[in-house]
Write a structure and sequence with these properties.
This protein has a single domain, classed as Class I glutamine amidotransferase (GATase) domain (Rossmann fold). Helices cover about 30% and strands about 35% of the residues. The protein has a nine-stranded mixed β-sheet, with helices on both faces. A two-stranded antiparallel sheet has the order 5-8. The chain is globular and about 50 Å long. The two termini are about 10 Å apart.
C-alpha cells in the first residue's frame, strides 16, 4: 500500500508557500507517495486521519494554530508519522506555540543581513542524508535559530557573516540541516527555502528530497 503524505501550506505569502508545497509534492509523488496538498490547517482537526499518514509536511510561516491541532500533530508524530519541512515554513510557524517548537526542534529568531547574504553550507555528518553532497554556497537569508540541543546536526553555516550585535560573541556554527526524534516519529528540518528558487535545484533540492523520504515512515 502506498505511503500517504499530507502537505499543508499558508501563512506569510513572501515565502511562496504554494510553490514550495508544489516542489515537495512533486518529489514525494515521484517516490511513490500518495500526496494530499491543502491550504488550510483544518486538516489537523482529525486525529485519526493524521495517524494514518506516513508524513506531514507543514509550509506555514508565522500564522496561528489552535491548541488541539498542534496536539493532534504531536500525537501522530509521537506514534510514528514523520514530520519534515524547511525555512520559516516549519521552524518559524506558530510563534506562540511552544509545543510546536519543542516538537520541531528549533525556532527562528533572526536573519542578519536579510535576503541576499552569501554564505557556505557545510556538511558535518556522514549520514546518508548528506553523503556525497559537497559543501556549497548560497545567496539567500541566513537563519539564526534557537536550537534544541537534542538534535543531530548534518549541515551548518557560519556566523557572523554580517555585522550586528551578535558578532562580538565570536564565530558560531549554526545548524542548517538537522534531524531529531519525537517519540517514534522522525523529524527533519532544513533552514534553506526562503523562496522556491533557492531549493528547486542542485544540492539544496537533493538535501530536501532525501529529508522528506527519510522522515516518511
Amino acid at each position: 500500500m502506498a505511503r500517504k503524505a499530507l502537505i499543508t501550506w499558508g501563512g506569510w505569502p513572501g515565502h511562496e508557500p504554494d510553490k514550495v508545497a508544489a516542489l515537495f509534492a512533486a518529489d514525494l509523488r515521484e517516490a511513490g507517495f500518495v500526496v494530499e496538498v491543502t491550504d488550510t490547517l483544518a486538516c489537523f482537526d482529525d486525529a485519526a486521519a493524521l495517524a494514518d499518514l506516513s508524513l506531514i509536511v507543514p509550509v506555514w510561516t508565522m500564522s496561528t494554530i489552535e491548541p488541539h491541532q498542534t496536539e493532534n500533530v504531536a500525537a501522530a508524530v509521537a506514534a510514528g508519522v514523520g514530520l519534515a519541512g524547511c525555512h520559516g515554513g516549519m521552524c518559524d510557524a506558530f510563534r506562540n506555540d511552544v509545543l510546536w517548537q519543542f516538537m520541531t526542534g528549533a525556532q527562528w529568531v533572526a536573519h542578519p543581513g536579510n535576503d541576499g547574504v552569501e554564505y557556505r553550507v557545510r556538511m558535518v555528518s556522514d549520514d546518508p542524508l548528506v553523503a556525497g553532497i559537497a559543501d556549497f554556497d548560497v545567496k539567500t537569508e541566513q537563519y539564526y535559530l534557537h536550537i534544541d540541543p537534542a538534535v543531530r546536526v548534518h549541515a551548518v553555516c557560519d556566523f557572523p557573516v554580517v555585522d550586528g550585535p551578535h558578532a562580538p560573541n565570536g564565530a558560531v556554527s549554526m545548524p542548517v540541516v538537522f534531524t531529531k526524534m519525537w517519540g517514534l516519529g522522525r523529524v527533519y528540518y532544513n533552514a534553506l527555502g526562503h523562496q522556491a528558487n533557492v531549493i528547486d535545484h542542485g544540492p539544496a533540492r537533493e538535501l530536501l528530497r532525501r529529508g522528506l523520504l527519510w522522515a516518511g515512515r
